[in-house]
Design brief:
The chain has 372 residues and is of the alpha+beta class. It contains 10 helices and 18 strands. Strands 4-3-2-1-5-6 form a 6-stranded mixed beta sheet, sandwiched between helices. Strands 12-11-13-16-17 form a 5-stranded antiparallel beta sheet. Strand 5, helix 5 and strand 6 form a beta-alpha-beta unit. Helix 1 crosses helix 6, helix 4 runs parallel beside helix 5 and helix 9 runs antiparallel to helix 10. 44% of the residues are buried.
């Protein structure tokens, strides 16, 4: 099959060069990138294509052209026509083609790194490589690609801002539509229509009138509800953002106001700490110190890196020694629960972090929306 392909853009070549340099720095003879339809950020970062089903591999060997191995002829066709990798191979069992490509360059004693070894690669495929490449040391090399992707470019931040524009349009539409008697499914459907119509392929919308967010269901909005709402979407260029807030159906009680104010206090207190070199664990401990003086509790974790995957490093966990790098995108979403009323308060924004500090991409106010 011969398919005319578009020229590989300069920024894509720069991405490949950065990853290849990381391969050399790690002392690896080759790198295999494992991707599937849920973990596809690395795939899009290097190939320029969306992986919509099953799994695929990218093989990177210094001083050689990268190889993309896919599992469906449709994926091969579009990767050849629109993608950045020229050598695109289709086989029904991709790992077999990966092994063939690696046998040509690896010898016993060489080191092979696999990005996605612990969370993406199929066990059967890993075992197959260990059999087909005797004497080759195989190790996890997820960090090689993660390090390259962590530092965002100006163009990537432009893509993040475009994703946030779409998320806020859907968020504002949700706030305008939510009324007593409206179904959760209908509200989410309207948000999805706004989002999908502007080129967003992946979405995750959560909402709840309880203490924790959850998937949409067939509940009906009632007077007195306190609804947490979260939009996570991947924009037209593939970059994820998070935007969330809290809505009171009717005038909130004094306790509900205090609940939201506590969540907002955490949100405001943490933003100045989202700077290069900040320790993730220390940020979470600051949240706990604020909540220790309140009548409420910390709900879910507070945030994480974000980009071509909805969850990237670093992760804001209490025991995390990770440091926030410069030119990073961080999704921060404080969540506070009230066990007495079984309500929760939630805010979410995506921040651009550079040497000057951090800046939220959202333009709508982070306030308690009240529906009279």
């Amino acid at each position: 099959m011969t398919v005319a392909s578009a020229p590989t853009p300069e920024f894509a070549l720069a991405r490949l060069a950065t990853v290849t340099e990381g391969v050399r720095d790690a002392g690896l003879a080759a790198l295999v990138i494992s991707a599937d339809w849920k973990h596809k950020g690395n795939y899009r970062y290097l190939s320029g294509r969306v992986l919509w089903s099953r799994w695929a591999y990218i093989v990177i060997v210094p001083d050689r052209e990268p190889i993309l191995v896919v599992i469906a002829p449709s994926q091969q066709y579009w990767a050849k026509r629109e993608g950045w990798i020229k050598d695109v191979r289709f086989v029904e069992h991709p790992v077999e083609e990966v092994a063939i490509a690696l046998k040509d360059v690896l010898k016993p004693g060489d080191r092979l790194g696999i990005a996605g070894l612990n969370d993406t690669m199929r066990v059967a495929d890993y075992l197959y490589l260990t059999t087909e490449l005797p004497g080759v040391e195989i190790s996890d090399a997820t960090g090689v690609v993660a390090q390259a992707r962590a530092r965002k470019t100006a163009a990537e931040f432009d893509s993040l801002r475009d994703s946030m524009r779409i998320a806020e349009e859907a968020f504002e539409g949700f706030c305008d539509s939510v009324r007593p008697g409206a179904s959760h499914w209908a509200l989410v459907g309207e948000a999805e229509r706004t989002i999908r119509g502007q080129g967003c392929y992946d979405t995750m919308i959560l909402l709840s009138d309880g203490p924790f967010l959850r998937e949409p269901n067939n509940l009906i909005v009632r007077p007195g509800d306190v609804i947490m709402f979260s939009i996570e979407l991947s924009g037209p260029d593939g970059y994820w953002v998070e935007r969330g807030g809290t809505i009171s159906i009717g005038q909130p009680s004094d306790r509900t106001r205090r609940l939201f104010d506590t969540c907002y206090e955490v949100f405001v207190a943490i933003q100045p700490l989202l700077v290069p070199g900040a320790e993730c664990g220390e940020i979470v401990r600051r949240v706990d110190s604020i909540l220790s003086n309140s009548e409420f509790s910390r709900g879910i974790w507070g945030g994480h890196g974000i980009g071509l995957d909805v969850l990237e490093q670093p992760v804001l966990l209490p025991d995390s020694p990770q440091l926030i790098p410069s030119m990073q995108a961080i999704a921060y979403h404080p969540h506070v629960t009230d066990l007495e009323t079984s309500h929760g308060a939630y805010l979410a924004d995506t921040f651009e972090v550079d040497e000057s500090g951090s800046k939220g991409l959202a333009t709508l106010p982070h306030e308690l929306f009240i529906i009279d």
